[in-house]
Amino acid sequence: MVSKITSFVYFKSSLFIMLLLLSRQESLMAQSVIGGKATANPSTICTNHTSVITLTGNSGGNSVRWQQTDANGIFQDISEPGLSFTTPNLTFTTSYRAIVSNGGGKKDTSTIAIVTVSPTSVGGTATATTSTICAGGSTTINLSGNLGTIQWQSNASGSYVDIPGATSATYTTPFLTTTTSYQAIVTSGACSSAISTIATVTVSPTAVGGTATATPSAICSGGTSTITLASNTGSIQWQTNASGSFVDIPGETASSYATPTLTTSTSYKAIVTSGTCSS
Prior knowledge:
Elements: H1 2-30, E1 37-41, E2 44-46, E3 52-56, E4 63-69, E5 75-77, E6 84-86, E7 94-101, E8 107-109, E9 113-118, E10 125-128, E11 132-134, E12 140-144, E13 149-154, E14 161-162, E15 170-172, E16 180-187, E17 194-195, E18 199-204, E19 211-215, E20 226-230, E21 235-240, E22 247-248, E23 256-258, E24 268-274, E25 277-278
Parallel strand pairs: 2-9, 11-18
Antiparallel strand pairs: 1-3, 3-6, 4-5, 4-7, 7-8, 7-9, 10-12, 12-15, 13-14, 13-16, 16-17, 16-18, 19-20, 20-23, 21-22, 21-24, 24-25
């Protein structure tokens, strides 16, 4: 008789536990699950840096399973417990999401947090199309081999400062009167900026021909004279019209020139050149 009572009590206890479990299961199945919102802080990083992924606004679940995209953009499970974690060093743009479940078969997926990975900034090479110009002229500066957005700078004021609006790979200088250097500040996303090489534009002063005088200006046949150039700016090349038209006198580049013995009236002039500037 005792044995029957014990068996009956055990049966009733087991049945009660089963009913509780079924009730809990039904409760879990009836309970809604909200996946919440996944966020990345920061959302843009430089290559080989990390971000913190956080889940908020989720409810109704007792389990969180994180996923991230691989190099092919396919979501894969990762072993990150909890509602927040720090990513490893990332080398490509990666997305994260959380699968929230309640153990009763119900689950929901969070929003997606995207960590954009910027490649390292590369300053590149700045070159001037014409590196030597005359005063009052201009030239074009080109940037190549760079990686990132561009901000041109010049040292026209004595130190390098940004040139407002100069953000393309090609920059046309204003009219220059003094030698000026240019460089580009290049920034790739969240990465530190890099500086290009420097392109220097050498400005030559405007050539000034000056005044040529002969001492003496009148000579006897078979005599000589000395031609002197004054108030010029630039290098000198003397010319004579002894052959009928003006031609260079080889090797005569000083500010004074001693004529050979002359038998006919002869004229002389100097061609004066300052850098790329001609008189």
